[in-house]
Design brief:
It contains 14 helices and 13 strands. It has 364 residues and is of the alpha+beta class. It folds into four domains: 103 residues, Reverse transcriptase/Diguanylate cyclase domain (Alpha-Beta Plaits); 67 residues, 3-Layer(aba) Sandwich (MutS, DNA mismatch repair protein, domain I); 53 residues, DNA polymerase, domain 1 (Orthogonal Bundle), CATH 1.10.150.20; 102 residues, DNA polymerase, Y-family, little finger domain (Dna Ligase, domain 1, 2-Layer Sandwich). The chain has a five-stranded mixed beta sheet with strand order 5-6-1-7-8. Strands 9, 10, 11, 12 and 13 form a five-stranded antiparallel beta sheet that branches. The protein is globular, with a radius of gyration of 23 Å. The two termini are 30 Å apart. The site of 2'-deoxyguanosine-5'-triphosphate has 14 residues, from strand 1, helix 1 and strand 3.
Amino acid sequence: METRVVFHIDFDYFYAQCEEIRSPELRSKPVCVCVFSDRGGDSGAIATANYTARKYGAKSGIPIIFAKKKLEERKDAVFLPVDFDYYFEMSEKVMEIMKDHADIFEYVGKDEAYLDVTKRIEGDFKKASHLAQQIKNSIRDKVKLSCSIGISPNKLISKIASDFKKPDGLTTIFPDKINEFLEPLKIRTIPGIGKKTEKRFSEMNLETIQDVKKLDIFTLNKEFGRKSGTHIYNAVRGIDNEPVKKREDRIQYSKIVTLKKDSKEYQFLSDNLTKLCREVYDVVKKNNKMFKSIGVHFVQSDLSNKSKSRMLRNLTSDLEELQKNADQLLKEALENQTITIRRLGVKVAELSEIQGQSDITNYF
Ligand code: DGT
Ligand code: CA
Ligand code: CA
């Protein structure tokens, strides 16, 4: 098999950077983006923080109250509520740019993707670094966003490499430098190795990837089961044959309207929602997509946002299922609703191509 050239691209401190882009005066300040819970006050958690805030220990997942304590001495620290629609918009723009530079483009999540660029750079890793720099420049020029890129012969190493220097990093691991790169790293830098596995290794006095290489496949399988054992055995050797698979970059289809009147009355909203679902459904259908996630969104009279979403058990492209779920979400969202709603939206996400159709196109 020829050597592949795979990029992993991950946006730096994504939500917080989006906030900096729209309000550049934030750049010098610690910024935390918060998911405030319904309970009000400071209850809730930090979604992410910029690198200034991270220096003080504010980071993803910790309670807002803890982050505020850690940033006590920084009177200029800023705590903002999440604005998912805006982040999605930013994400879509960047995905579009990246896609233009890939032979195969795999959307992973709202702030990351894999690109197989083997063909267009003719397997040349020097050219690959050059291309990566071009992509970074292009994203910065058009969207003002910084990202970090890892380059290597496979997804596993590229993922580790993109995280190696952050923010604004570019790390190329040439095929003959893989072991040199991996061996000194802590075992938990391997994606999929969690705290539990790390602890088991630690009990065996194994801390780095190099240490774990001493274990043979039988010991690993016995310790962690065959699936994980084999994965670990290959991963510490930099082996990963997962192809970059074409995956939909379009994150969601959505539609939002300003209502004829501000309202919190279920029937009025439900009628509007039914129409919205129909419109979203038509676009989804036209694009030959199925979806797994459904959400409804309010812009309330004070312009604050509220949204609810749910993941279905299976992919669907069914209008009735969309309407039924959207309506349930509306009911849930209206519980204890005090303020009236000004704009109403619905979205579907976690998209997938409807199978079959694309085969037919290929066939002809
Ligand atoms: P990075 O990549 O280390 O520079 O920083 P981020 O913030 O881009 O981190 P990443 O790539 O793990 O996550 C991408 C976005 O996903 C992040 O900006 C916010 C969201 N996110 C990450 N972790 C959490 C979490 O624990 N809770 C919530 N609500 N959102 C999270
Ligand atoms: Ca990121
Ligand atoms: Ca990420």
